[in-house]
Write a structure and sequence with these properties.
heterotrimer; A alpha/beta (467); B alpha/beta (904); C alpha+beta (159); A: 467 residues; alpha/beta; five-stranded mixed sheet; 39% helix; C: 159 residues; 7 helices; elongated; binds flavin mononucleotide; binds iron/sulfur cluster; binds FE2/S2 (inorganic) cluster
Chain lengths: 467, 904, 159
């Protein structure tokens, strides 16, 4: 048994956030102190060695991502003194001091804005809008300083001097706690100018979204932060070179960043040893649905689904059987009871044709209609589509309507072909501009595979057999 | 070039293309929506899917969007792959989920890209059986209809309107399958280029409202290649006619000139052709003041011939809005020494100056495409958007050039539009606008400087001198002027392709000299500098190149008693001269007028000959750049209307039978012209046009109802009208292949009924037309150019205590008289006004809207214009009649001017 | 119309970002906090302050589920309709709410007291089903809990 729970062991039973002093007492900000002794590239290397995979759903190597940030300025900004800002004074005035007649226009040379030379941004992705997912909330509410420390270290590694926390609108409690923690950190000079006497400076701002799942997609998030329509951006360029306001930008998930201080404090070997598998560290798992104790647990990476559901979530509620589960949020493929022994890490879940995603499981019980559940999921994705690309914008609502028709007893045999077709075409990787729609197809295509009979029954009986 | 493999076969394609460009350029039919050659890729519609394979052994492949995938060396793709086909068919199906399928009542029907792509993708059965969403439409002003239910959300409209044209009053709202493309509230578009939405939109969301009022399907329009006559830019157009009325104007692609886009004046300002005030019959007045009697064409020719017989007593006044051929015919009729350009001395002098600079100096005259490529720009004295709008759209692209260069290291392909814009952000290359008042390009300017014309000239001289101390210097610059001049000079010098833009609006010689000096100084510093001199009329440069007495000289000539007959060609002199001068020019003289619309001069003509508009005749116009371009007759006008050159040469021939060949048709006229005047020699390479063997049909093969048109009068099919002037026929029969670039009457290719058929006419998509873009540049720098600077800086402008300098203010809608006859344009034109700096107005005790009196007795309501310098008063060109610009007038409040004009 | 207080709050945020536009969403929320929705006039004012056009700002405003461009009632009820809540009995809550208020999702009671908006996942799936009433989160709801909560608000209003 592996018992270390670095991310959550200090979270208080009453759920209140650790204050700065309490956090420091747990060894908080030690990782930062260590970091500030290191060269930037050493920090990145450490994270790379730690095998910290991104916890935001896509499972990208965190250290690798950081290493993409160019260490020289590729993008020459046109600044002072070529940038001239014109101020018009109204009404126009005669200016006798000048030899001629001024036309009411005063000139000044000034740099374009105080950020014109700032090199790099860091963003903590705390949008967490995927249906069924709540793990980052735990970290934000319970230990905001841990995230802040992770962000400072990451910012140091990528030479960022401004960072943002992009927060889900509904996390009102978390918002207050983060603001408080930021204030404490500023007070203690973990943030601000010349952090702990070094020449590294950073400030972190909290930015609260207004409710759209797509804002969690890293590039849409950047547009949202800039006050533009949050549709995703095209690649190239990668955000590591052209991100926020055209500057190099790193976007990381809250859980990812919360891991960082511990890696820096305790080292790569320690970190790797936390897990059961080759993917290092612990993972915040969660379970919702008809289990006895729905909730979240930090467990070694690679804990089996069975252990999570049976031991930690207490098994199914009396009278209910587990029929299947979404291993990592709404955008992951269904797995079945027979898959419960899967180790919940990126590789093992992928081997079964699903995804670890966020590691927050949603349980399908035997008294819940899988078609109906798929319809519910599809409505979520259709509603949250940004509207940029066709398969998602117009394909998802159609899919949802077909599922509704099945539920309403108006299914036709060709409806199942239609669903198959959408699952296949929209589900393939490059079919859409961003992964939202392929993600939406994951539960559908696996439901069609695993619950084929249920779909057929809906058509055959012209009703939902569960109603 | 790189090699890519399509269906296993190798093809050579440019490495900076994406796969969609590559496939289309190779002639493959690959459907698409959101990509546009001028806007780049967006990856939104997902229509252009193809299968890409890793290598020869990869049989699986994966779906990629052609428009988002670079054409890299050895890329292997399949368009035909069954899965790619299935995907494309599905995309159309999804796009059509909410589409109303209302093609029969949709104005886009028959030239709809969505229709074409639907057929191409093989989507035939509608399987979606659920309700469609519906939207409320907006009233978007007089030009553009809105039917949002048809929208397939390709995002092209916003990308053009905002990203390309810089408009900010139109956007997409909402999300998911509820995205809405519209304005914040009902009302006309603010952008001068909104009409392009009609062609940018792949279906019938944005349609041409002016066409709607006299609607005709594309295939029933009779069309011909034409040139816009509404400013000096020389945009290529395709006007369409049916049943004797001009129905609409569309863009005609020219790689070097207008590319894909027109301005709204050019697109919608055509309705004068159909105006009731058109004069369609020749008339004669026995004595001045008599009622005019109608003449038959033969009588009219005879009358004119009789007058022309006494050649030495004639004077001919040409026109910058008439073709080279018409002006040349008049010049031949009256004799070169009795030909006047019809241009006021001041303007004629400026045009001569410009011609001198461009013909003898090293400075190049840029095409509109060149302008868009400039990487540093100084605008000196012009409000470009209002004078030659299409050039302003090019300047909006020019400001991207310098940041683009700086991005090179990021290796973002140019077609990756969103990525490029992300990287550029709001950075812009240098664009300096020195103008009398605020302009619509100020939002993208690095720096704006507002001053009286002489001060603008001084700034120009200062810049030139900073660039090259040989150039004349300026005394007494203020500290701020020096600062500005230094900033401008530094950025121009740092550029590779700097551009200076000036014009004739202010009739200010020093201003043009200053602009020329800046460009010359840059050339002397080994920069590929160019000088664009904007002119307001479609043939100003052609006419200036032809030469002749200016209008003031003509007046003097007549006053000296050297002529007793004045022949005026398509020139409303009231727009160029004060009424008294015109009166003295025409009093007691026989006045012959050739024109197509009624004006004050036609009303007093002794002999009047109705001429053809641009849509009813053919000819050549020379744009600001010095590019001679042919426009071709679209349709046969009603009544006795004839092209001006035809009236004139028939009158000439009456006396001199053997000359007839010279004047037989446009080709021979052009030839004669080129032989007579070497400056027009390049025109010879456009000749002969009549040599294709078969004529090119102006009507589509689907043109319907030919026999029915006149069925109420005659059941015989009438012989189609003959056109001696061009290789085009008024018929649906004839040459079936792809016509030469100059003669493309419409874009169509099998399976491509929309304007996007254009792809098939280009060497590569977005590139020059096959066979080379039409037209001939007449102005090129000589082999050993003159390097000397000209002029000297005027002294600084000092406001007078009691008088104001009158300066012209151009308006895209209103300043051009022909387009003003389009009701929509009239509706958007400002009311006449007198613009004043608020401080000046306060000094005069005038408030906004209050009437001010000028010295010449005219009165105008005051408009406060804070960007206008003090001491200067602005008058809208073409709207506040005939003030002599550049002169001074006192101003008084009408209220306080004891009693006089109060009742106005 | 934007109040001076709104303006001050928005202006205070400007220094946080390199562009004014980046404050767009926060500014809309500030205005919305005062009168629960963003009217056209408000939108124009905010746009002007941020040097945006109304069309540009509206493109942003209308994207988000939590910026209201139409009036809403005194209390906004957001009943989570996403998957975990749905599994845990959200439909029964819907039915009860419908009975109680006589409206369906997306509607406002005729007396203008309640607006019931559909909402995607509130991020408390382990405590499903959940509802947010104004700024207060209610979790593990039964139809009876829901009724009691709503009744409290109803009575508050009638007092
Ligand atoms: C539709 C969509 C929604 C997403 N939402 C989130 C989110 O709420 N939080 C998150 O961290 N990542 C989210 N992601 C993933 C991000 O794009 C990005 O990969 C992630 O923030 C990177 O962080 P990581 O490398 O630390 O995992 C989303 C992706 C998509 C396509
Ligand atoms: S798949 Fe397309 S429409 Fe859907 S959210 Fe991504 S970009 Fe937007
Ligand atoms: S044209 Fe390629 S995605 Fe639209």
């Amino acid at each position: 048994m592996k018992t270390e729970r670095p991310l959550t062991q200090h979270i208080r039973a009453d759920g209140l956030a650790l204050n700065l002093r309490e956090y420091e007492a747990t060894g908080g900000y030690q990782g930062l102190r260590t970091t500030l002794q290191m060269e930037q590239h050493q920090v990145t290397k450490t994270i790379q060695d730690s095998t910290l995979w991104g916890r935001g759903g896509a499972g990208f190597g965190t250290g690798r991502k950081w290493s993409f940030v160019p260490d020289k300025d590729l993008h020459k900004r046109h600044i002072f003194p070529n940038e001239i800002v014109v101020m018009i004074e109204e009404p126009a005035v005669w200016d006798n001091a000048l030899a001629g007649f001024t036309t009411g226009v005063k000139w000044g040379f000034m740099p374009k804005g105080e950020y014109a030379t700032s090199p790099t941004y860091l963003v903590a992705n705390a949008d967490e809008m995927e249906a069924g997912v709540f793990k980052d909330r735990v970290l934000l509410e319970g230990n905001p300083h841990q995230l802040i420390e992770g962000m400072i270290i990451a910012a140091y590694a990528v030479r960022a001097d401004t960072a943002f926390i992009f927060l889900r609108w509904a996390y009102k409690e978390a918002a207050q706690r983060i603001e408080k923690a930021l204030a404490e950190a500023r007070q203690a000079n973990y943030l601000g100018e010349h952090i702990l006497g070094t020449d590294f400076s950073l400030d972190i701002h909290l930015h609260i979204s207004a409710g759209r799942y797509i804002c969690g997609e890293a590039t849409a998030l950047l547009n949202s932060l800039e006050g533009r329509r949050p549709t995703p951006r095209a690649k190239p360029p990668h955000t590591a070179t052209v991100g926020l306001w055209g500057r190099p930008t790193v976007v990381n998930n809250v859980e990812t960043l919360s891991n960082v201080p511990h890696i820096l404090r305790n080292g790569v070997d320690w970190y790797k040893a936390l897990s059961y598998t080759a993917e290092g560290g612990t993972k915040l798992y969660g379970v919702s649905g008809r289990v006895k104790r729905p909730g979240w647990w930090e467990l070694p990476m690679g804990t089996t689904a069975r252990e999570i559901v049976q031991e930690h979530a207490g098994g199914m509620l009396d009278g209910y059987q587990l029929r299947g589960f979404l291993p990592g949020g709404a955008s992951t493929d269904f797995l079945l009871a027979e898959h419960l022994d899967v180790r919940m890490d990126l590789k093992s879940v992928a081997a079964l044709g699903s995804r670890l995603g966020t590691g927050t499981m949603i349980i399908l019980d035997d008294k819940t209609c899988p078609v109906s559940m798929t319809a519910n999921l599809m409505h979520f994705f259709a509603r949250e589509s940004c509207g940029w690309c066709t398969p998602c914008r117009d394909g998802l609502p159609w899919t949802a309507k077909v599922l509704d028709a099945l539920e309403a007893g108006q299914g036709r045999p060709e409806d199942i072909d239609r669903l198959q077709k959408h699952a296949h075409l929209i589900g393939s990787p490059d079919s859409t501009f961003c992964p939202l729609a392929p993600g939406a197809m994951e539960p559908l295509q696996s439901a069609l595979q695993y619950f084929a009979e249920d779909f057929q029954e809906h058509v055959r009986q012209q009703r939902c057999p569960w109603h | 070039m790189v090699t890519i493999y399509i269906e296993g076969k190798p093809y050579q394609v440019p490495e900076d293309h994406n796969l969609l460009q590559a496939c289309l350029s190779l002639g493959f039919d690959l459907p698409y929506f959101c990509w546009h050659p001028a806007l780049g890729s967006a990856g939104a519609c997902r229509q252009c899917a193809v299968k890409q394979f890793k290598d020869v052994d990869d049989t699986q492949g994966r779906i990629v969007m052609a428009c988002m995938t670079p054409a890299a060396e050895s890329t292997r793709i399949s368009i035909d792959d069954p899965e790619a086909r299935e995907f494309r068919a599905a995309v159309i199906e999804w796009l059509m989920v909410n589409h109303p399928h209302d093609c029969p009542i949709c104005d886009e029907g028959g030239e709809c890209h969505l229709q074409d792509m639907t057929v191409m993708s093989g989507h035939v059965n509608r399987e979606y059986r659920f309700p469609k969403r519906t939207y409320r439409n907006q009233d978007l002003g007089p030009f553009i209809g809105h039917e949002m239910n048809r929208c397939i959300a390709c995002y092209r409209c916003v990308r053009f309107y905002q990203d390309y044209a810089g408009g900010r009053d139109f956007n997409v709202t909402g999300a998911r399958d509820h995205v809405y493309f519209g304005r914040f509230e009902d009302g006309p578009f603010e952008s001068e280029f909104s009409g392009n939405l009609v062609e940018i939109c792949p279906t019938g969301v944005f349609t041409d409202k002016t066409l709607h009022r006299h609607y005709t399907r594309k295939w029933d329009l009779q069309t011909a290649p034409s040139i816009c006559v509404l400013c000096g830019a020389g945009c290529n157009t395709i006007p369409g006619e049916r049943y004797g009325t001009l129905r609409r104007i569309r863009n005609r692609y020219h790689h070097e000139v207008n590319g894909y886009f027109l301005c709204d004046r050019g697109r919608y300002g055509y309705e004068f052709v159909n105006d009731e005030r058109r004069l369609r019959q020749a008339t004669r007045r026995a004595r001045q003041g008599d009622h005019a009697e109608t003449l038959s064409p033969a009588q009219a020719v005879a009358e004119l011939a009789a007058l022309a017989a006494r050649r030495e007593r004639l004077i001919g006044i040409g026109s910058p809005r008439a073709s080279l051929e018409a002006n040349f015919a008049l010049r031949a009729l009256v004799g070169a020494e009795r030909f006047s350009t019809g241009l006021p001395a001041q303007q004629a002098g400026l045009l001569d100056l410009i011609l001198d600079v461009l013909r003898n100096g090293p400075v190049r005259s840029p095409s509109i495409r060149d302008i868009a490529q400039a990487d540093a720009v100084l605008v000196l004295g012009e409000d470009v958007t209002q004078v030659t709008p299409r050039v302003a759209l090019a300047l909006r692209q020019a400001v991207r050039q310098e940041p683009l260069r700086e991005l090179a290291e990021l290796h973002i392909p140019l077609w990756q539009d969103a990525g490029i814009r992300e990287a550029i952000q709001d950075e812009r290359g240098p664009l300096f606008i020195a103008a009398v008042h605020a302009t619509h390009l100020d939002d993208v300017a690095t720096l704006t400087y507002r001053a009286a014309p002489d001060d603008l000239a001084r700034l120009g001289f200062a810049v030139a001198h900073l660039l090259d101390t040989q150039a004349p210097d300026v005394d007494d610059l203020t500290a701020e002027q020096r600062l500005i001049a230094e900033a401008i000079a530094a950025d121009l010098q740092a550029a590779e392709r700097p551009l200076v833009v000036t014009g004739v609006t202010h009739g200010n010689r020093a201003l043009v000299q200053a602009a020329a000096n800046v460009a010359l100084a840059l050339c002397n510093a080994e920069r590929a500098a160019s000088l664009a001199c904007l002119v307001p009329e479609s043939n100003s440069i052609g006419l200036a190149m032809m030469g002749g007495m200016n209008l003031n000289a003509a007046l003097q000539y007549v006053q000296e008693g050297q002529a007793d007959t004045v022949i005026i060609l398509e020139n409303d002199l009231h727009r160029r001269m004060e009424t008294v001068a015109i009166a003295s020019l025409l009093a007691d003289r026989r006045v012959v007028v050739l024109d197509y619309l009624e004006n004050e001069i036609t009303q007093i003509a002794d002999l009047f000959l109705p001429t053809a508009t641009f849509a009813e005749c053919s000819g050549t116009l020379v744009n600001y750049e010095g590019r001679a371009q042919r426009f071709f007759q679209v349709f046969e006008p009603a009544g006795d209307v004839r092209p001006a050159h035809r009236w004139l040469f028939e009158a000439m021939n009456t006396g001199r039978e053997n000359d007839s060949e010279t004047w037989e048709h446009l080709d021979t006229i052009a030839k004669t012209l080129a032989q007579a005047m070497p400056q027009f020699a390049p025109l010879l390479s456009d000749v002969p046009l009549v040599a294709l063997g078969m004529k090119i049909p102006r009507q589509s093969p689907r043109h319907s109802g030919r026999t029915a048109i006149h069925a109420d009068q005659d059941v015989n099919v009438p012989r189609p009208p003959q056109d001696p002037d061009s290789p085009l026929s008024f018929s649906m029969e004839g040459f079936e292949g792809q016509p030469p670039a100059a003669l493309i009457p419409r874009y169509w290719a099998p399976g491509w009924n929309s304007v996007q058929a254009l792809n098939k006419f280009q060497q590569e998509v977005g590139g020059p037309l096959r066979g080379g873009d039409p037209g001939q540049r007449l102005l090129e720098a000589p082999a050993s150019p003159r390097q000397t600077y000209s002029g000297s800086a005027p002294s600084a402008f000092r406001p007078r205590a009691e008088q104001w300098l009158l300066v012209p203010i151009h308006h895209i809608f209103g300043s051009e008289p022909l387009s003003l006859l389009t009701p929509g344009i009239a509706a958007l034109a400002p009311h006449p006004y007198l613009a004043l700096n608020p401080a000046d107005a306060a000094k005069l005790g005038l408030v906004e809207g209050e009437t001010a009196l000028l010295d010449n007795g005219n009165s105008l309501p005051v408009k406060l214009l804070p960007s206008l310098p003090q001491g200067v008063a602005g008058l809208p060109v073409g709207l506040a009649a005939r003030e002599s610009m550049g002169t001074y007038s006192s101003l008084r409040s009408a209220k306080r001017a004891n009693g006089s004009a109060e009742s106005d | 119309m934007m109040t001076p207080q709104d303006r001050r709050e928005i202006e205070a945020l400007l220094h946080t970002y390199p562009t004014r536009q980046a404050v767009a969403l926060e500014a809309l929320k500030i205005v919305q906090r005062r009168q629960r929705w963003v009217s056209d006039d408000d939108l124009r004012d905010v746009a002007a302050l941020l040097e945006m056009t109304p069309a540009e700002l509206d493109g942003v405003a209308t994207f988000y589920s939590q910026v209201f461009r139409q009036p809403v009632g005194e209390h906004v009820i957001r009943l989570c309709d996403s998957v975990s809540c749905w599994i845990m009995g959200e439909i029964a809550l819907q039915e009860r709410l419908s009975q109680l208020l006589g409206i369906r999702t997306g509607e406002t009671t005729p007396d203008g007291r309640f607006t019931w908006l559909p909402v995607s996942c509130l991020g408390v799936c382990e405590q499903a089903p959940a509802m947010m009433l104004d700024d207060t989160l209610y979790t593990q709801l039964t139809p009876e809990d829901l009724e009691a909560i709503v009744q409290r608000y109803v009575q508050e209003g009638s007092r």
